[in-house]
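Appendix B, Record 12. Input sequence as logged:
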Amino acid sequence: MDVTADLMDEREVLTRFKAGRLERAQAVRILTALMSTGTPRHPGPQQPLPGHGAHRPAGPGAGITQSPPAGLARNAAPAGEATPGQARSATPAPVNHPGPAAPARPPHAPARTTPAPAPTTPTTPAARTASAPPAQDPSTPMAQDTCDPVGRPAGEARIRETGAVGADGPEADLDRYAVVGIAGRYPGAADLHLHWHNLREGRDTSCAGPLDRPGGPLLEPGLRGHFLAGAAEFDAEFFGLDPAEAALMDPQARLFQEIVWEALEDAGCTGSRLDRLTGPDGSPRAVGVFAGVSSADYALLAAQDWSRGRPMPAAGHGDLAAGLAARLRLSGPAHAVDSAATSALAAVHLAVGALRRGECAAAVAGGVELLLHPSRARDTAGEGAGALVLKPLARALADGDHIHAVLSDTTCPSPQPPAPSRQSGPPAPGPGVRESEATTARRIGDAGAATGIAALTSAVLQLRTATLAPAPGRPAAKAWPRPRTPHGQELPRTALVELAPAHGPRVTALLEEFPPPPTGPTTPQPTPAQAHLPAQVPGAGPEQAAAGEELVLLSAPTPAHLAALAARLADWIAPATTPPTAPDTTPDGGAPATPASAGPKPAPAAAVGPPASLGALARTLRTGRAALPCRLALTVRDLPRLHTELTRFAAQPHSTHSTQSVQGEGIVSADLRSAPHDPYALAGVPETGDYLAALWHAGRLEQLRRLWLSGLPVDWAALEQHAGAGAMVVPLPPSPLLRRPLWLGDTHPTAAPADEAGRAGAAGESS
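Logged structural output:
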């Protein structure tokens, strides 16, 4: 059946897609067409609603906030927005009976900071409840009569809206948010693959205290804590920073910047796809930054050793949000949140509010905690850093994003809780996992401001792998089947993250899995390891698709980084080039075999499996990664050939210092740090875009490769758009960071300073 955008709006498209009556490629094509028009058919979450201006921290969960540099902040208070001390309410619209789409709220309507709950009866809307949770271990499945954060019995309201797993109603899809990128660093784990391995095995990550940190031991003899390795290290060159300047940055800000970059790369959102995320004023790279942080140990260390004439670190937490946004050239709102243990979860709550009001097209939210000063040393202390990249679900589907999970609700309730809702009918299953301070402390210790993001990450990993991690009463990990209604219908797996500190408000987040659309009787069901991967579609020109060739592009700020990236990708795709010896539902990312000449060994690769296809890998590298000065371009037909060429290049990283071609091998590299970018000045010519599109459609990969290596900016995301769903991306390992020690008082930092050409092409610059 021919389906066009003229026959449906976004609600109808999402409803048909979730019900399996519309294929993903069709849904993406129609949603893309709808979003390209100037007048949306309904007030979607990516559009600013009437009467809603800029973002203000809402609710008592927001502490210290910092705004981005002048010209980027949006400080006007929306009309009718409730003050932090007031309760926020919104009249929900029924979704259980047919009718036209609900109109946009009038300008005087109050701004919501949490999603409007669906009514449980025609006359009694559901209300939020702040009542204490049941007296049970927070890591075990919830009782049958448990209510979700919006006051309705979890699962039952979803049954009434959808009737089946993966068939959510349009109202829910239009006010839900996709986790499209995730990254983190936790005790005993340099990446999320190792962290999930620790969670799954129930490993104890405590130790006597790090011995390699400047300033001496942190813990007294006999005490144990959970610490990160390499807290004093940073890759200043990768981000184009002067080492002396980087040495004055709070290590928490440096660590959070690395994690945010890895999360953006996991979302395929550091190249031309990032440039195409525009805000309500048309500004590109409209990504909000929300950082949870509560300690300032670095300033204490600096004050302790201060002497006249010695430079001091900047005071406050502004560098974690506004400074990071400026360095990565992000134009969305930027806020640092200090609410103790709930800081990171409150940052996620504020990010959802900014997305709902249309202040940014995407948001990155997370938290960081490092113990650097002995005055805060304590038994069972913990550290960690993590971040999520969030998009409105409808926007994520239209953009072809990989979706790790869906954030369906966040709450930061007012001091006066509303009355609990009354629900008739039999009890329905509640969230299968509850993450809290207690579950997080068992795994990574008392992690302070990073507690919330660590709990969210644990929930996402369990949803993504359909595996329950060990917990009291569950000594070993086990498979997590989907819950069912009393009538046998499958429901999506859900996880509730709830932080209820002794002082301050309770903050919650409700997550759901994002199952693939229903498959037909002749379509094979995906394996558990493949269930979260999107469908693959061709993303190249007609002649290229016929020839089976793909253009694979790699870039980095220095030759050492480029060699390390080639080695990392070669190790990552190695399992896909040979038949597996045994089934593995959680494949290893692997650590790169970096040549000795490439400098320090980078951290292991991320927690993602081997590539689904060469086309998916190549498409993600082209559209989702920044174009940096040192470049490598390969034209290959299959993954084994790509593995061979990457391994060969990584073994001889300094064999090509300028643009040249190796006959018969298909390897071309370029170092643009000292060469002129775009020597023919084609970037400013209006006809260049049409010329590149013509080359792409004709499959002229050699010409496109040479132009890219010459420094010509190429909007690969625009070229991919012709295929409808051709912009779909998959998670890849992050770019390697060659971290070196940088600390206060270093008169001769060990990191080599970046020259002007290197700074111009550093990570975060526009492609």
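The mean pLDDT is 74.
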